[in-house]
Amino acid sequence: MRQLSKTENAIFLLGAVLMVIGAGSSVLMWKGAPYVFALGALGFASMQMLQRYEGKNVVIRRLRRMMLLSDILFLVSALLMFASQGNFLGLSHITYIEYVYNKWVITLLIAAILQLYSTHRIANELAKE
């Protein structure tokens, strides 16, 4: 795996911290939470996408794709956080509640599980090589 530089690593860690702060502060109904989470998700996902695997191991390549899927789900969670602030999509109230309101939690949970699994499996596979 390509290692990140010190600046990229700082952006990566800051993005992770901002995602935690944004998700946690949304529970407190803070209006700025989606902005903090989205900024963190952009930093985290973009730096993780810069890490490339140059080898031939098929398992690591598959795990890497899972990691990229989790990055996309983090960004979708950020969009759904903004959509949960108000019904600006023009949907009926029932449809909005059923399909949009606070559904960011589900995509965030799926992304976090995929991220944890792929991170640990990649570390184990790289240790084997």
Short description:
By secondary structure, this protein is mostly helical. The chain is 76% helix and 0% strand.
The number of E-state strands comes to 0
The span between the termini is: 12 Å
Given as residue ranges, the uncertain stretches (5+ residues, pLDDT < 50) are none
H-E order: HHHHH
**Beta-strand share of residues:** under 5%
**Count of DSSP H/I helices:** 5
Taking all Cα atoms into account, the compactness measure Rg is 16 Å
Which structural class matches the secondary elements?
A: mainly alpha
Helical fraction = over 70%
Shape: elongated
Mean pLDDT: 92
Largest sheet: none
Description:
- By secondary structure, the chain is an all-alpha fold.
- 76% of the residues lie in helices and 0% in strands.
- It has five helices and no strands.
- The chain has helices at 6-27, 33-50, 58-83, 93-99, 104-128.
- Helix 1 (6-27) runs antiparallel to helix 2 (33-50) and helix 2 (33-50) runs antiparallel to helix 3.
- The mean pLDDT is 92.
